[in-house]
Hints:
This protein is of the alpha/beta class. Helices cover 51% and strands 17% of the residues. The site of adenosine-5'-triphosphate (ATP) has 22 residues, from helix 9 and helix 11.
Amino acid sequence: MSEPSYAGLEERILILAPTPKDAETTQRVFDSVGLSSLICADMAQLCREMAKGVGAALVTKEAILADRTHCLQAILQGQPLWSDYPLIVLTPSGAESPQKMKLLESVGNMTLMKRPVQLPALLSTMQAALRDRRRQYKMRDLLADYEIAVKNAEAANQAKSEFLANMSHEIRTPMNAIVGLTDLLAAENATKEKRREFLHMLKVSGQSLLELINDLLDIAKIENESVELEKVPFDLCQLLNDVIHIMKTKADTKGIYLLFDCPASLGGYFTGDPIRLKQIVTNLVSNAIKFTDRGSVTLKVELDGDTVKIDVADTGIGIPKDKQESIFSKFSQADSSITRKYGGTGLGLAITRKLVRLMDGSISVVSEPGIGSTFTVQIPLPRTHAGIPKVTKSRAHAKAEKLRQNMRPLSC
Ligand SMILES: Nc1ncnc2c1ncn2[C@@H]1O[C@H](COP(=O)(O)OP(=O)(O)OP(=O)(O)O)[C@@H](O)[C@H]1O
Ligand SMILES: [Mg+2]
């Protein structure tokens, strides 16, 4: 007996013949034209196999009528909407009683063939049944895709509603402050000192709005694939020290240790996009400080060949296991109380992951609620030994950096 040409469950023909000899002869016929088949010993096996997947089934009328357990009827009735199992039923020559015909027809989608069967007729009927079944499976796959698309659309819609709610909150808070402060500034009895304080608060509120807008523009730009990464030489230790310098005030205010010591092996220049790399590390350190109330935030860097590994570890609130993937999706926070307690819109990590991927790198997190989190970024960053050109940035890039440096400092 030769091997069936295609062993997929959904393409095979199930054979339930009156005798083992008949079954083997039939299987040989199918083999000879490359049709895969399986011989079933009884109706119970046929039903079990049908449930796994089937192209078509070849059964005798006697087997159907003798099915006391009604398993075939049950399996045919339990089919999903897209399915209509094709059955080819071999009947004895001669006329059938109307009652038996009615019983047979009630079973399902069947094609009756009188015995003795003409081989060409059997093969062409079988091919038609298999084609029909393939179309059914195609419909099943389309329905499954459709269901996924509907679920995704629903999830996107839900995320958008949550985003709008978060965003209104994020915009309203600094806007209220701005409107209130301008009134206070305008008051004639405000002292010089008070005015200075109000101006500072105005600046902080403005910065927070600008930061939000920058994040939105960033995510839109990354999604439009219009972000172009620079490839310029830069001093990695200097860059990381800059991040620490910017973040230090916030950590000090919260009474958290911010630890970083750049290893000597990382001295010298690397080639990459320093502004975007800074954005990645800043987002992670900013989150670490934001979600840590006591203890420390540690930035650790090491080099493995051409790959730089950056760990940002904290002793903060941690992230539940079931949220450790979703927090990288845009507008997603570990839970809704996060917004109330810590603010933010859930864009930082989405931007970070997209930037890391643009750099052919990876980002992961290990975290335990109540103990802390460690975010690890690995990015290929070749060293450069070439001389450092005086002007390494494009004008647009330099302008963007200036804007960022001036306008989006602490984002905790
Ligand atoms: N170090 C961390 N410790 C605990 N939870 C974290 C940490 N970093 C991120 N998270 C969780 O992941 C969520 C998503 O982080 P992400 O930076 O994207 O958003 P955000 O900080 O809430 O807001 P945004 O960065 O847009 O201001 C956070 O809301 C928080 O639930
Ligand atoms: Mg954040």
